[in-house]
Amino acid sequence: MRIVVVGTCGSGKTVLAQGLRRLGYEVRECHQEHSYVPYMWQVMSRPDVLIYLDSSTAVAHDRGTRHYVKGHAEEQRRRLAHARAHCDLYVMTDDLTESQVLQRAVEFLSTHYNDKLHSA
After folding, report:
1. Under DSSP, is residue 52 helix (H, G, I), strand (E, B) or coil?
2. In tens digits, what is the pLDDT along the chain, a chain of 120 residues?
3. Cβ-contact 34, 72 below 8 angstroms
4. CB 80 within 8 A of CB 90
5. pTM over cut 0.90
6. Phi, psi at residue 7, to the nearest 5°?
7. Is 110 exposed, middle or buried (0-12, 13-18, 19+ CB in 10 A)?
8. What structural domains does the chain harbor?
9. How many helices (H) and strands (E) does the chain have?
């Protein structure tokens, strides 16, 4: 089963993907927030499960994403709108630790995709 993680800069995509890989999941990050093609995540990644991570501009800035210019966060969300509309799991990461985000993803996967996980 292929899991794809999309989201805004600074939302924790890389950390979540690394954590899921350590647990044995097949996972890819899709940097949809940088693409003008709204459905790139579908074509390039062909996921069975799409996880969307989000963070506020202030939290992304605190996490080290300092390249924002006025309107950049809004532009990313516009580019990610298609993925958000089709995601299987949406997580606002502002008030969560990296471990809590991973735990939410694993709980979701085990609850909703348990049969697929064990038949692969």
Report:
1. strand
2. 899 999 988 899 999 999 999 999 999 998 767 666 666 776 677 899 999 999 987 887 777 655 556 677 788 888 899 999 999 999 999 999 999 999 999 999 999 887 665 544
3. no
4. no
5. no
6. 160, 180
7. exposed
8. 2-114 (3.40.50.300)
9. 6, 4
